[in-house]
Amino acid sequence: MKPSVIIVACDMLLATGLKRLIQDAFSLSPRIIDDISKPMLLDDFDHIITTPDDFVANLSLLLPRKAQCIIFSYSPLGADGIRFIPRTAPESVIINQLRDYILTPKKPQAQKNALSMREIDVLRLVASGLTNKEIADALCISVNTVLTHRKNISAKLGIKSVSGLSLYAMMNGIIHPYH
After folding, report:
1. Which residues share a beta bridge with 33?
2. Rounded to whole angstroms, how far apart are CA atoms 113 and 126?
3. pTM for this structure?
4. Closest CA to 169 of 133, 115, 131
5. Span 69-78, mean pLDDT?
6. Are both 99 and 155 inside the same structural domain?
7. Does residue 92 sit in the same domain as residue 140?
8. Where are the beta strands (DSSP E) in the chain?
9. Are 121 and 68 in a shared domain?
10. Position 108 in a domain
11. Would 177 be classed as within a structural domain?
12. Mean pLDDT over all residues of the chain?
């Protein structure tokens, strides 16, 4: 049985391009939606392709289904169990990664370098928008210790940007949006 794919994206140009690419490369017919009005609809699909913005906009529906999600993003997310495709990659790379994800899906592996509780505390505060000094004050540690924790977090997750770390934190339940 062929795998089923849904594309959840407000960017119709992106969604239409992905749909055409998947149709041509794999002879599959993905469905495009820009609004998840019926969450049960998602249960009918093996794979959900979306962008970080659309993932966050539909977080309550997509987070429990993160193992099904393929995030089409400008930068790697490094989130455990999240499949990622670089948005700026050449077409051949996108097709190869889609093939790996859709046609030969692999079970997510346990994260090799789990974050310590203190690193999770630092990540939570980084994702909340605090500066290194504010994090140091909140955790009663030095700024140098904060910098060391941030360096270790980035090394373990492979994420360097604050926005990437924030998205990782949301996707892994470390912070909750809109709170």
Report:
1. 8
2. 19
3. 0.66
4. 115
5. 78
6. no
7. no
8. 5-8, 31-33, 47-50, 69-73, 83-86
9. no
10. no
11. no
12. 85
Q: How many domains does the chain have?
A: 2
Write the CA distances from 68 to 16, 133, 150, 158, 175, integer angstroms: 20, 38, 29, 21, 21
- CATH number assigned to the domain comprising residue 145: 1.10.10.10
Give the span between the Cα atoms of 153 and 46, in whole angstroms: 31
What are the beta bridge partners of residue 50?
8, 71
Question: Contact at 8 Å (CB) between 95 and 21?
Answer: yes
| Domain residue limits at 60 | 5-103
CATH number at residue 29: 3.40.50.2300
What is each CA distance from 165 to 14, 117, 149, 156, in whole angstroms?
A: 24, 16, 13, 11
On whether the CB atoms of residues 50 and 69 are closer than 8 A, the answer is: yes
pLDDT tens string 118-170: 999 999 999 989 999 999 999 999 999 999 999 999 888 888 888 888 888 88
Q: Judge if 22 and 46 occupy the same domain.
A: yes
- Distance of alpha carbon 86 from its chain centroid, rounded? 11
